[in-house]
Amino acid sequence: MRKAFHSARGAIAAVVFALIFASGTAYADQFSLAGLSDPTNVTADVNFVYTPTNATSGTLTITITNTSSIASSIRGFAFNLPGSPFSFTSIGGDTDPGGPTAISAANAGGVSGYFIDLDFDKIGADATGDYDVGVLNTNTGNFINGGAGGSNPQIAQGQSRTFTLAVVGSNLGSLTTANFLNTLSSGNAPNGNQFFVARFQAVDNQFGSDFAVPTDGVQQVIPEPSSIILMGLGVVGFLGCRARWRRRQSTAA
To answer: What is the pTM of this model?
Structure first.
């Protein structure tokens, strides 16, 4: 009886221990993109996750996969930064004001040649409004309406690339992935304000271009901390009841 009791207590302790660490776990959000001009053939999938380090720093990890059914290349993308109570000093090493900053190959899927520009409400993306942060495969032109081909890096049809961006600011310990994806672009947007946009070029091996925007709801691929805790408490309760039942059975015997 004592052995079974201690085993149950050990299992409960393990669950509680896991919950303590799970409460700070970041979770990723996945969503799909479709072109404004060709939503059937110009598509992409995005995995977007923010992981806090402390109150003044964290990391954004953004993975983009070009799922288009025709030849095309993704040259850049843009997103927004949440407002108060959060504030941002730099993203990916770039500050506002200032020109674009090069992203190291280590932070761009092993590929050099990408640039990031933090420019609050000034990253224009066609008719989808103005964004706060833009990533492009060139440091010239109008973020993110620009973009270059040739030897410049790009995400071709069927390819995927992960960008790791350091975030510096204040109140970042309580910042979540959802805060980013609930913040829409600003300004005039005939095609609707968006939380994310990708720049496609060389569509169908031509000179055509397209902007792809989110098409559906965001899917969480890891439960957020509150869900993990609730699920874990249920497990703890079950294990506790089971331990008491075993003690009664042993006493009755």
So the answer is: 0.77
pLDDT, tens digit, 9 for 90 and up, residues 162-186: 999 999 999 999 999 999 999 999 9
Residue 160 vs residue 138, higher pLDDT: 160
DSSP string, the chain: -HHHHHHHHHHHHHHHHHHHHHTT----EEEEEEESS-TTT-EEEEEEEEEEEETTEEEEEEEEEE--SSS-EEEEEEE----TT-EEEEETTEESSS--EEPPGGGBTT----EEEEEEEEEE-TTS-EEEEEEES-SSSSTBT----TTS--EETT-EEEEEEEEEEESGGG--HHHHHT---BS--TT---SEEEEEEEETTTTEEEEEEE-S--EESS--HHHHHHHHHHHHHHHHHHHHHHHHHHHH-
DSSP string spanning 205-232?
Answer: TTTEEEEEEE-S--EESS--HHHHHHHH
Q: Each residue of 32-53: pLDDT tens digit? A: 999 999 999 999 999 999 999 9
* Mean pLDDT computed over 139-156: 73
Give pLDDT, residue 175: 98
